[in-house]
Amino acid sequence: MEPFATNLRRRAEKLGISNAEVARRANLSDRRYGNYVSGRREPDLATLIRIAGVLGASVDELVGSNLEERSGTKEELFQERIHAAVRALGQDDLQRLVIMIEALVMARSAI
Questions:
Q1: Calpha distance 38→43 (Å, rounded)
Q2: 48/28 Cα distance (integer angstroms)
Q3: What is the pTM of this model?
Q4: What radius of gyration, in Å, describes the C-alpha atoms of the chain?
Q5: CA-CA distance, 60 to 4, in Å (whole number)?
Q6: Coil, helix or strand for 44?
Q7: Would you say 22 and 12 are in contact if contact means Cβ atoms under 8 Å apart?
Q8: Tens of pLDDT along 16-67?
Q9: Whether 3 contacts 69, CB under 8 Å
Q10: Counting Cβ atoms within 10 Å, is residue 111 exposed (0-12), middle (13-18) or buried (19+)?
Q11: Fewest CB within 10 A of the end CB: N or C in the chain?
């Protein structure tokens, strides 16, 4: 399942997150996720869905022969990275993040 392993690596790289961080966000051990990235093992469906959610990709994109390269602006890439990171946060962290973002917007509008 080499395309899957390659797609995992490419997607994480595009999002700027390490394999260890993907594993943490998907609630997997580094070793288990490492087996998927190296192509030694394949995840079960539930695990595959969790990994896809963490990476902000569809299951089809991850298991396909070539991860669809989403071309876009730097702003779109930043938004993808933000969405992937936000999915890993709990409710308390999300609440803090909203406060920080609103403060940033208010500061920018005051300039």
A1: 12
A2: 11
A3: 0.72
A4: 16
A5: 10
A6: coil
A7: yes
A8: 999 999 999 999 999 999 999 999 999 999 999 999 999 988 899 899 865 5
A9: no
A10: exposed
A11: C
| pLDDT digits 0-9 by tens, 5-17 | 999 999 999 899 9
**Could you please report the per-residue DSSP string of 55-77?**
HT--HHHHHSSSPPP----HHHH
* Rounded Cα–Cα distance for residues 99 and 104 (Å): 9
Structure tokens of 103? Answer: 């403060």
* CA dist 72 → 21, 34, 78, 79, 107 (Å): 24, 29, 10, 11, 28
Answer for the pair 19, 26: CB distance below 8 angstroms, yes or no: no
CB 9 within 8 A of CB 15: no
Tokens for 48? 């595959």
